[in-house]
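Q: Structure tokens for this one, please.
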Amino acid sequence: MYYIGYDIGSSSVKVALVEAATGKKVIVLNEPQNEMEILSLQPDWAEQDPEMWWQYICTATKRAIKEANIDASKIQGIGISYQMHGLVIVDKNGKALRNSIIWCDSRAIEIGNKAYTEIGAEKCGEHLLNSPGNFTASKLKWVKENEPEIYRKIDKYMLPGDYIALKLTGQVTTTKNGLSEGMLWDYKENKVADWLLDYYGIEQSLTPDIVENFTNQCVINEKGSQESGLPIGIPIVYRAGDQPNNALSLNVLRPGEVAATGGTSGVFYAVTETNSGKSTRVNNFVHVNYSESNPRVGKLLNINGAGIEYRWMRNNTGNESYEEMNEKASQVNVGSQGLVVIPFGNGAERMFNNKNVGSHILNLNFNIHTNAHLYRASLEAIAFSFVYGMECLKDDNAKINVIRAGNDNLFRSEIFSNTIATLIGHEIEIYNTTGAVGAARAVGLTDGDFEKFGSGITTNDHVMTFLPLKNKEEYEKAYQNWKKELELILINK
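A: Here is the predicted structure, written as tokens:
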């Protein structure tokens, strides 16, 4: 018997099959082979056709069943992970009325900022644990203001994963964690934030019915079966945004556990049991195992300028492989002989209250510094930004016991991982897993046995653990030097 999991990203759709009994990976693949198109009709806009996601889901599903050489009738359940904060709107027939306004679209920033000012920081903080910001609710308000003809046809709004569930089952549903990603969940009242919809002039009837995770949410209908290749009647058991799902994939489910991602951008996602948030630099979301009696909130800190900075360095200093760059960097002492890189050249950073700090190379000495120093300083800069972000999380009441990360991108670098582990004073456990695999395994959590689930991840996926190094003093000196240069820049912004 098997479970199938989907991860709907903005660059590709990934599908994974796992053994139901053991959680062992059977196959993982993605569609398309290149990257999906993101439409940018105006500066700072980003849209995708949700029907495109569905077509790639269908293609990838059929490929996975064929290439794994399994009997599709033995697939027992479906889990869905998806890009967070997106908006999909459909009519009464379940047809998408326009492209999805996806996570990296910035058109609704001023709408959210105005709402935060007029509603007030106290109410937003107590009830949403966030500012309304540039999230799904604000994007829906943008449609109401700018596309009234389309808005009048809306039957339901939803998150990207909800749309795929609709295509599979014919039912429009959502989850508490999905609503929280859109700033549509009231933590204090434990219900939909209807007061925010009222403020925006959005009808409460547009909110889909809510289903619980780790239950049979809805089942595949005949149309969904014909198009996807999955048998009729298979239940969707789980769905979550990519960062909460990444945390689940890494067995980050309890207070004090943190999931880290080091790709183009960087993310810390810390699980806490407190429904409190005091910082607009940190976003708070319902975690996948949240309940009113046992609240689990994920505190998310995003760093835009992370892996993209190291990629830029590679592309513009000789195009060496990352392995070659890391090897050269390892020959340079901690602190890169005073060379400092500020890596925030990928737009405004939320942890600096949306300031656009930019990227800087400081203290470059033509007589002593080489490209090896640049590589080391770049890795240290990204690691230091993670450490700075961890300080922001702790300021927002997050407690840190252990950090878990996927075996990808930046965390493959010993310099990067050792620097973070040493400065934070916590070990970093590295796991070889993906979001699609995590979503598939989550199907088995209908029994509520999170301990068994976590032990399966440790058995199947643990690669290594980075321990804090003993020579913390030189790392701390380098970090304080970096932080001093950063704060001088922030003063002038």
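A few notes: The mean pLDDT is 93. The chain is about 40% helix and 20% strand.
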